Amino acid sequence: xxxxxxxxxxxxxxxxxxxxxxxxxxxxxxxxxxxxxxxxxxxxxxxxxxxxxxxxxxxxxxxxxxxxxxxxxxxxxxxxxxxxxxxxxxxxxxxxxxxxxxxxxxxxxxxxxxxxxxxxxxxxxxxxxxxxxxxxxxxxxxxxxxxxxxxxxxxxxxxxxxxxxxxxxxxxxxxxxxxxxxxxxxxxxxxxxxxxxxxxxxxxxxxxxxxxxxxxxxxxxxxxxxxxxxxxxxxxxxxxxxxxxxxxxxxxxxxxxxxxxxxxxxxxxxxxxxxxxxxxxxxxxxxxxxxxxxxxxxxxxxxxxxxx
Length: 308
What we know:
By secondary structure, the protein is of the alpha/beta class. Helix content is 51%, strand content 13%.
């Protein structure tokens, strides 16, 4: 009987922890690491082994997954401050699956580095938010050799629907950034449209119901407004700083390849302002507060006592 191979997972944040949990629930053996002790303890309670460092994960697992917040952190984990600390040169690692959003340029450079030492690099960002990570309904955008994708497809399907978007690392990042630019645009534009309606006297929940069966339907109106913004919860689970990071990466990559983004630039300015005023750790649904302040309205359900 073939022994179940040990898998590695580095980064147990809002997305990483539920993805790692799904791997354990599917019967996989896991060794993991995160700087936050509470995240490690939560995964250990589900049966994971906890390593003392990223390098220690790669010393034990042939396939290692990364779910990290920024390109700088991804590079630091792969390279390490010293030769004995990074994933490069670790004892066991043969395949590195990066689930993070880093942008195409840095992904191409990192892929060359790890491939030069015999590690296969799988560029595999995900989309679908914390809820998708918990439910296993993420979109998984893989760019790697077709044979690597085929060998990993069943494992990646634990997270959601896997797509092979190309053979070259970096294409997964481009796919993810295009998606998140649209998501960020929907959030900002929907906040402006709903604020306009509220200022005119409309109930925002009624507006959401109408728009959701009309031509203006989008994911912000379908999910974020009725669940987090209109009830004033602002708890969708994705940080404004991370959304802003993705938007700015998209703008940088677009400029580098000569694609004009006039709308995207305006959206980028709104997300920059959100982070500057509300902080990088604010929930990304709080972008609506920036629009509300400027419009002089609050997007909330009207009550009989509300004054026009």
